[in-house]
Write a structure and sequence with these properties.
Elements: H1 2-16, H2 21-28, H3 40-49, H4 53-60, H5 62-76, E1 84-88, H6 94-101, E2 108-113, H7 116-128, E3 134-137, E4 150-156, H8 166-176, E5 177-186, H9 193-201, H10 208-214, E6 218-224, E7 235-241, E8 264-265, E9 269-272, E10 277-282, E11 285-286, E12 294-295
Parallel strand pairs: 1-2, 1-4, 2-3, 4-5
Antiparallel strand pairs: 5-7, 6-7, 8-9, 9-10, 10-11, 10-12
Helix pairs in contact: 2-3, 4-5, 5-6
């Protein structure tokens, strides 16, 4: 506990000085940074300390996100009816909220992020725009939703820091998507040499188009996105058709990220009766990461203490 407290204080000092938290975490890991990889824990810590930065950026320059979401809205408008729309890695729900605000037909909205602080701020931001999306904490590589359960899943630079795990990330996102997967991510394959070097130094994703095709998925559009905040980190559009015939769902139903069993809502937790795992709800935010799981065999009155066969 002492070492964790010391690390937290050290990171807080780095952030206060404006230093690159993720790069320092890679260095502390002892060689992880040498091959440009970021761990899930590095990403979570870095993003949580940055919580609030997306909302501040929007308040300082709302026109940029307005243009960005207008272009994304054009893409979504070509995909047919959308009953459920999920942003994977939603941060503070800024993109999700502004995007939804301009949609003529309002689907059920959902979003998740690995950072609790970002999700909590996202709830307030969405609420200030008269929205109440289903927001929760989750791991991009263990999304607590059923197969083919969301009409359209999209990302906005959320796969970005997971260089080396492109295949895992796209496979998991495609598992949840029913009709379409829309990726707005660093376009390493379409970028210039200087931009590619920068992406590689930060451990960003690469070869997304090749990875999508290698998974047997259909890439129907692949180009530079017309709105980009940083020319050294150009955004690429990767539009993937899933085309599932499964039934369309109009709500988001959680499943255990460990067992895949359906989760049932409790007063202060989501619970998987088949695996006896409970996931806490912290100030209204469901915490659905594997390391949030609590073994709770007596969560419900009358539960047996023995696991099912």
């Amino acid at each position: 506990m002492t070492s964790k407290l010391a690390l937290t204080r050290h990171i807080a000092e780095l952030y206060a000085r404006g230093e690159n938290v993720m790069a320092n975490l890679r260095s502390l890991a002892g060689g992880t940074g040498a091959n440009g990889l970021n761990t899930v824990e590095d990403i979570m810590i870095s993003y949580d300390f940055q919580a609030g930065s997306y909302i501040r950026s929007y308040e300082q320059d709302p026109a940029y996100l307005d243009r960005y979401t207008a272009e994304l809205r054009k893409v979504l408008g070509q995909l047919g009816p959308i009953d459920t729309l999920l942003e994977a890695g939603c941060g503070e729900a800024t993109t999700l909220s502004i995007l939804a605000g301009g949609m003529q037909a309002r689907p059920a909205l959902g979003g998740f992020d690995i950072s609790w602080s970002r999700v909590k701020l996202g709830q307030a931001f969405a609420g200030s725009h008269a929205l109440s999306p289903t927001l929760f904490c989750a791991d991009l590589f263990q999304i607590p939703l059923a197969d083919r359960s969301v009409d359209v899943v999209y990302t906005s630079h959320s796969i970005e820091p997971n260089g080396g795990r492109e295949r895992e990330a796209i496979r998991e996102l495609a598992r949840v998507a029913r009709n379409w997967l829309v990726l707005l991510e660093p376009a390493h394959d379409l970028a210039g040499e200087e931009a590619r070097r920068r992406m590689e130094s930060h451990g960003y994703v690469q070869n997304l188009a090749t990875t999508i095709r290698s998974l047997g998925l259909t890439l129907v559009d692949h180009r530079l996105f017309p709105v980009c905040a940083n020319p050294l980190n150009p955004t690429g559009l990767y539009l993937v058709k899933i085309g599932s015939t499964s039934d369309r769902a109009k709500v988001f139903s959680f499943q255990c990220p460990v067992s895949g069993a359906p989760l049932e809502a409790g007063p202060d937790a989501w619970y998987a009766p088949k695996s006896f795992l409970a996931y806490p709800v912290l100030r209204g935010v469901p915490c659905l990461l594997e390391n949030n799981a609590i073994l709770a065999t007596k969560f419900r009155a009358g539960d047996s203490s023995s696991l099912p066969a």
